[in-house]
Design goal:
The complex is a heterodimer.
Chain A (H helix, E strand, L loop, with lengths): L2 E4 L3 E4 L4 E5 L13 H8 L8 E7 L7 E7 L5 E6 L7 H9 L6 H4 L1 H8 L1
Antiparallel strand pairs in A: 1-2, 3-4, 4-5, 5-6
Chain B lengths: L13 H8 L18 E2 L1 E4 L3 H12 L6 E4 L15 E2 L6 H15 L1 H5 L10 E5 L2 H16 L5 E3 L1 H7 L15 E5 L3 E2 L2 H14 L3 E3 L4 E7 L2 E7 L2 E5 L2 E3 L5 H7 L7 E12 L7 E4 L4 E5 L4 E8 L11 H14 L8 E11 L6 E4 L5 E5 L9 H14 L13 H4 L14
Parallel strand pairs in B: 1-12, 2-3, 2-13, 3-9, 5-15, 13-20
Antiparallel strand pairs in B: 4-8, 5-7, 6-7, 10-11, 11-12, 14-17, 14-18, 15-16, 16-17, 19-20
Classes of the chains: A alpha+beta, B alpha/beta.
């Protein structure tokens, strides 16, 4: 049984929450520049680590707000919970964020190109 | 049959039992050898569960590749193969699924004879119950679709269900009344351990090396080609590598930068203390959300849905266990005093469309067979059969083609959430 520290309501029981899967998946800003494979990576491919995982949860039977969790999928240890739209602050969370393969996908690195298009 | 000069297997028969009784059963051969890994293999299968062992067996028996190793981290059949609710059926909605699961069911029907190992396959029927008018209508639509694919499936009314399952309560004034159901009489159960052992023994008789306690640390590639694996028992060279590791598929795929759409979740099952026979079929219910059968030892075997978050912890969360037991009692109140003996949480590889992945990859010689999620056991023979074909020919056949990884790029998903029995 997990005890989850909702950033808005505090420590509550797992049964009050629903899990929304991998966090920090950026919607590709210029999807017409993506190949089928890159688009499928955004839509279907999911990080599934045996270890530290950044994931989204929603406090379904509480404040109904979404937030993020840094959790170890081997031990179920929760290192940190943080609000949606922010990045993890713990060292473990920062590392996991940086090392995720998604940081190097075109969906994320394309942002620069998009800015160029606008000009 | 499965006897060849390399590893002579005694044929199990009444005659051999009588013959061995004269020597007090002291001279039976080991069912499989315990070899150390060789340096080179023509093909290596990672994962010594049912699917992996079946793949190796069919590679050897049908495709004539004899120099094969099955690499297993623990002991064979010690993972999900030995931890599932052993339900076998082929009543799936879509043509692609019907083809692979029916292919599998047909292989199950002759498997005990083929392997010369009693897998205790029992076609006791799988009955899925409807608890509402809507569910019953949806069910008849599905039954007609299934029948069009030539798979046996029949709608039963509550009276017929009562006759088939005397312990069930068909009173219409309960919370989840039994409105009807559909039965696949050819479905049933098999002894899961025997499936792993039977395939292992048969594969071994063809010279397949089954290497246990051997963990794969890395997949070695030269440019875009597989050259071998790095294990805790040293390096093993091969040009054909089949990965059949269920919940750990993403971990191995990650070593070579392959991204899978898989999420690893615990799936729980419970086994009760043994009781007198009360249930001689398999009952499933989508609305109450559980499935139940009775093992030959008399234990009630129950299962339900997966846990709601990713985990490799091999233990399920308590609320899910609680929900599973509550559902079982809802359907069979007589179970309320039953004590549970064992509880498992196996890590299953769930796919977004609840259908498996049997596929080549961008790396030549690297094949994945995964994504079976909550329902892989029933597919063991068929999965191994088509995966062996894929590895041997480097091209998918008509059954495995729709299950390639490309479907996530082309959008040709095989959405089996509805027909997969219980929600994922």
């Amino acid at each position: 049984m997990l005890n989850i520290d909702c950033p808005y309501c505090g420590l509550r029981n797992e049964t009050e929450f629903s899990c929304g899967g991998e966090a920090h998946i950026t919607r590709p800003v210029s999807n017409n520049l993506l190949s089928k494979k890159e688009w499928s990576e955004y839509l279907f491919s999911r990080h599934n680590p045996k270890g530290v995982f950044l994931e989204r949860w929603v406090h379904t039977s509480g404040c109904r707000k979404w937030f993020n969790i840094v959790r170890n999928t081997m031990t179920n240890e929760i290192y940190e919970t943080y609000k949606i739209g922010t990045k993890p602050k713990s060292l473990t969370g920062k590392e996991a964020y940086k090392n995720n393969w998604r940081r190097h996908t075109k969906a994320e690195t394309n942002k620069v190109e998009k800015n160029n298009v606008k000009k | 049959m499965i006897i060849n000069n390399q590893n002579k297997q005694q044929k199990y028969s009444l005659f051999s039992i009588i013959k061995n009784s004269f020597s007090n059963h002291q001279n039976w051969n080991k069912a499989w050898r315990n070899p150390s890994p060789k340096k080179n293999y023509d093909a290596v299968i990672v994962g010594g569960g049912g699917h992996g062992l079946a793949s190796a067996y069919y590679l050897a028996s049908i495709h004539g590749i004899k120099n094969i190793a099955v690499i297993e981290k623990g002991w064979i059949g010690g993972g999900n193969t030995g931890r599932n609710t052993t339900i076998i059926r082929s009543n799936y909605l879509w043509d692609e699924s019907a083809a692979i699961y029916e292919h599998s069911l047909k292989l199950w029907e002759g498997l005990t004879q083929e392997l010369n190992f009693n897998i205790m396959f029992s076609q006791r029927g799988v009955l899925t119950i409807a608890h509402s008018e809507h569910e019953l209508k949806e069910m008849s639509r599905r039954v007609h679709a299934i029948k069009l694919n030539g798979i046996d499936s029949d709608i039963l009314n509550p009276q017929e269900i009562k006759k088939f399952v005397p312990t069930i309560n068909i009173d219409q004034n309960i919370r989840y009344p039994v409105m009807g159901g559909f039965l696949q009489q050819r479905g049933g159960t098999a002894r899961h351990d025997a499936v792993a052992w039977g395939y292992a023994r048969a594969a071994d008789s063809y010279g397949v090396d089954i290497i246990q306690n051997c963990e794969v640390h890395n997949i070695l590639c030269n440019k875009d080609k597989v050259v071998g694996i790095d294990t805790n028992q040293g390096r093993i060279n091969t040009s054909k590598l089949g990965v059949v590791v269920a919940g750990h598929s993403s971990v191995l795929a990650d070593k070579v930068g392959i991204r899978l759409p898989i999420q690893s979740r615990p799936l729980q099952a419970l086994v009760s203390e043994p009781i007198k026979p009360i249930l001689d079929t398999v009952i499933m219910s989508n609305a109450v959300h559980m499935y139940i059968s009775q093992s030959d030892k008399g234990e009630m075997v129950l299962g339900a849905g997966v846990d709601k978050y990713n985990s490799y912890a091999q233990k399920g969360s308590f609320p899910v266990t609680q929900h599973m037991i509550a559902s079982a009692i809802e359907l069979f109140p007589i179970l309320s005093r039953l004590r549970m003996l064992r509880h498992w949480g196996g890590i299953v590889d769930t796919c977004p469309d609840a259908s498996p992945i049997i596929s080549k990859t961008d790396i030549k010689g690297l094949y994945f067979n995964c994504g079976w999620g909550t329902g892989g056991f029933k597919a063991t023979p068929g999965s191994g059969h088509v995966f062996a074909d894929l590895i041997a020919k480097d091209e998918p056949n008509s059954i495995s083609k729709p299950f390639s990884l490309n479907r996530f790029e082309d959008g040709l998903l095989i959405d089996e959430h509805g027909a997969a029995g219980v929600a994922h």
